[in-house]
Amino acid sequence: MESGDGERLSAAGIVIPATASVAHRLAWATAVAVGPNVRSIVTGDRVLFDPDDRSEVELHGRDYILLRERDVHAVAANRIEENGTGLYL
After folding, report:
1. Which of 22, 41, 74, 76 can pair with 48 through a Cys bridge, CB separation 3.0 to 4.6 Å?
2. CB contact at 8 A, 48 and 34
3. CA atoms of 35 and 72, how far apart (whole Å)
4. Considering the entire predicted model, what is its pTM?
5. Is residue 64 a contact partner of residue 32, using CB atoms and an 8 Å limit?
6. Contact (Cβ atoms closer than 8 angstroms) between residue 40 and residue 75
7. Cα 66 to Cα 88: distance, rounded to the nearest angstrom
């Protein structure tokens, strides 16, 4: 619910001031290829990235997202040790 001065009220009743910024959501994608100098990601890994920090390219009628390794926030991979979370930065 929003008041006239821009304040919002959350479902739990918390007043959110108009000056509070709304965070944007990160997105997951599957790596279909990686460059020769990439250290932490292999083909098939799921990567977490900011959709605003991406480049897109169309190859053979399919759209792909190009990311620099430093723009990847996390990687979800099955190759992580047994007691790990499967996520790493």
Report:
1. 74
2. no
3. 14
4. 0.64
5. yes
6. yes
7. 20
> What integer pLDDT is reported at residue 1 of this predicted model?
52
pLDDT tens sequence across 11-51:
888 887 777 766 678 999 999 999 999 988 999 999 999 99
Amino acid 60 reads H
pLDDT in tens, 55-81: 999 999 999 999 999 899 888 877 766
* Phi, psi (rounded to 5 degrees) for 41: -130, 140
State which amino acid sits at residue 8. R
Matching residue, tokens 């759209």: 63
Q: Which two tokens stand for residue 4?
A: 């006239």
The residue written with tokens 């990160």 in the block is 26
Closest CA to 76 of 29, 24, 36, 25: 29
